[in-house]
Specification:
Keywords: Electron transport, Membrane, Mitochondrion, Mitochondrion inner membrane, Respiratory chain, Transmembrane, Transmembrane helix, Transport. The protein is 64% helix and 0% strand. It is mostly helical. The longest helix has 30 residues.
Length: 98
């Protein structure tokens, strides 16, 4: 007998008892899992290797772009008044004349 073989029905009673207890709907992330299963994302995208790679690359690009914009926003907010864009135009013109 090979333990955990799907072709064997000679499991001990304790194994059959544990298999009868299902975690479906009891987990904290059950609503998230139900939502992801309803979108069929796995069936259409993640099941096929080329689509998976394209999805991962596109997702990485979108995440990097959005993270960069968020960091730039907070950087500009923290350094307001000290950046070149915040200088008055007459100060910039005076520096160019010198």
């Amino acid at each position: 007998m090979v333990f955990a073989s799907p072709f064997s029905d000679k499991y001990p009673k304790r194994v059959w008892d544990s298999l009868k207890k299902s975690r479906r709907g009891k987990d904290m992330f059950a609503p998230l899992n139900n939502f992801l299963n309803s979108t069929k994302l796995y069936d259409y995208v993640l099941k096929h290797t080329p689509r998976y790679y394209l999805f991962a690359m596109a997702g990485g690009c979108v995440c990097c772009y959005s993270l960069s914009n968020v960091v730039d926003y907070f950087w500009k907010k923290a350094n307001k008044g000290r950046l070149y864009n915040d200088l008055p135009l007459d100060t910039v013109a005076a520096d160019e004349d010198e």
